[in-house]
Amino acid sequence: MASTNPATATAGTESAGKQPASWLNRNVVAMGLTSLLSDVSHEMATAVLPGFLTALGISAAVLGLIEGVADGVSSFVKLGAGWLSDRAGRRKPIAVGGYFITGSSTALIALAAGWPLVLFARALGWFGRGIRGPARNAILAASVPAESRGKAFGFERAGDTVGAILGPLLALALLAYFHPRAADPSGPFRTIFLLTLVPGLACGLVFALLVREKAGAGTPARFFAAVRQLPKNFRRLLVGVGVFGMGDFAHTLMILAATQLLLPAHGVAHAAEIAALLYAGHNVVYAAASYPVGALSDRLGRRGLLAVGYLVGALTAVGLVAAFALHLATVSYLAVVFAVGGLYMAFEEALEGSITADLVASEVRGTAYGMLGAVNGVGDVAASVLVGGLWTLVSPAAAFAYAAVVMLAGAFLIFRLR
Predict the structure, then answer these.
(1) H-type helices in 301-418, by residue range?
(2) How far apart are CA 140 and CA 163, in angstroms?
């Protein structure tokens, strides 16, 4: 198996001129801080959303539908937004707009009496994520030397995941404070959704004020012409990414799994609190592993490490199968499963972006990140809807068994890449 070596990749030298001298520069730090604040907002909501839906009597199938539709919206927006950022030559305004949309949309869930408004708010938030993702990643890739992309993407993902640790912990503290005082079981959840506005809007301000971008001339290529410029080895990579994505279910379903497994022994409120704490532990592992994984890929190559990460993802799904099939509803066992889930996320998030930068020239890199996001998103739609549907119609064990098989197939395809 050949691995991607960023030092020798054909797209390793930027066409726009001299590379930045240091990878840990103003842009990298600012984007790490932006991602931290954005994920505080997002993960506060994610940690309590399954508990909120449980309090409203909404099923796992509906949660899968909500997450799947939201991922689908994000995917198709990424496809267009990435190309638009290449064409315009200015990516920063697109990224800033996306951060503000995402940061403000989650508060709408506080007004929900049923699932339709939750679906709308989640989809609007993912619309913002779709706008900002390719533009931000292209700016990040252009801000560092080619041989240090793994470190830069790992650092940005680590910042994102520190926010994903703080978000659930903050949500947990707020739940513990508000639940004893609430007459309406859904009231504490609604308060948390409103409070997500504070870090959600702050992240857009940080990106707008601190990130610097040198505007390019832009590329006049039409969308399909830009797609045709993407190299064949990148397209082959997308096949493995897409197959793995078909099993890469939304991790809100992990939180729901923990909530339902712990419900008989702990009740709704405490089960939701424990599940949020487990998710925080998941994100601790994700944050701790992101930079080391990225830095290791600068030395050893990325494809092999990405395949290992995909394999760890399959093991996460197997762990959830065992939890339901063997009734392993203990906090300690679930903590291990969540930790393994955080580990594979570190591999996936840190490496997919940096491999893309290695393989694709800067002029069409926004389009490439849009394609990567679209492929991931289509897979995520299928994974979330199928896992949620199998959970409701067959059993949770069957749902996660499907995920394990498909994720294993994705790992195999990445191993087989040449």
Answers:
(1) 303-325, 331-359, 365-393, 396-416
(2) 19
Please state the φ and ψ torsions of residue 283, each to the nearest 5 degrees: -75, -25
Location of structure tokens 């993960």? 43
- The beta-strand segments (E) located in 208-292 are none
> What is the Cα–Cα distance from 375 to 242, expressed in whole angstroms?
5
**List of residues 6+ apart from 408 with CB closer than 8 A:** 310, 311, 314
Report the distance separating Cα 360 and Cα 3, nearest Å. 15
Task: Identify the architecture of domain 26-213+231-416 in CATH.
Answer: Up-down Bundle (1.20)
Per residue in 110-125, pLDDT (tens digit) is 988 888 898 999 889 9
pTM of the model: 0.69
Sorted by sequence, the CB contacts under 8 Å of residue 267 that are 6+ apart come out as none
CB 77 within 8 A of CB 134: no
pLDDT, tens digit, 9 for 90 and up, residues 324-346: 999 888 899 999 999 999 999 98
